Amino acid sequence: MTPDAGTGAEPVRVLIVDDDALVRAGLSMILGGVPDVRVVGEASDGAEVPAAVEAYAPDVVLMDIRMPRVDGLTATETLRASPRSPEVLVLTTFDADDQVLRALRAGAAGFLLKDTPPAEIVQAIRRVAAGEATLSPAVTRKLITHVTAAAPTGVGRDPRRDRALRLLDGLSEREREVAVAVGQGRSNAEIAAELFMSVATVKAYVSRLLTKLDLNNRVQVALLVHDAGLV
Asked: 4-aspartylphosphate (modified residue): where (predicted)?
């Protein structure tokens, strides 16, 4: 859903979770002037998130990673494991650290640096509410590079790689080609040109991948492909 001013559609409901009151106030101020976005509540720690989500029914949660009692990673994992979970956008001061990767593996739809320009924050919220990925192919490539650099190189079985290969074995040849292209950080238009498809067909394949692999977004597909060692 991407409500437009004047259409009568409901605004995107946002819950802000951050232990810094100034950050919460700044985000509330930024979003307060946007007609198709509404801040419905705030929380200062991950421990407060389940009750806040229950009370405010947000569409999108802006989630800080580092909080003193229950961090944003644990809160994200708890949320995304629940049925009808809101989408999560992680707030961080780092752009590709292990904690961001853990949040993305748990199902966060993307992340925002805390110094992201206000217009980009608003656009990211709209995209996440519409069910779209918020990471550009360039950012996806950067994250994947980080994953690859951190991958274990020792001898022995890698349970994450075994799991990824098992999941990908259930795909058709064409689905696998699309998954690998996503893992390479390609956009839908780039995949369409490379595999001689329409962009609409690529979108349909990506949606099918998410369903068959039981994943939330294309970033998780890219991580799975790299876990399997296919890129």
From this structure: 64
Domain co-membership, 129 together with 147 = no
pTM (predicted TM-score): 0.73
Indicate if 201 and 160 belong to the same structural domain.
yes
Structural domain containing residue 111? 12-134
Q: Which pair of tokens denotes residue 173?
A: 């040849």
pLDDT tens-digit readout, 109-140: 888 888 888 998 998 899 888 876 666 556 66
Domain limit, last residue, from 119, 134, 149: 134
| Residue type at 2 in one-letter notation | T
Tokens 């839908």 map to which residue?
188
CB 110 within 8 A of CB 102: no
Whether residue 77 is contained in a domain is answered as: yes
> 76 and 122: one domain?
yes
For 35, phi and psi rounded to 5 degrees?
-65, -25
Burial 186-211 (b: 16+ CB within 10 A, else e): bbbeebbeeeebeeebbeebbeebbe
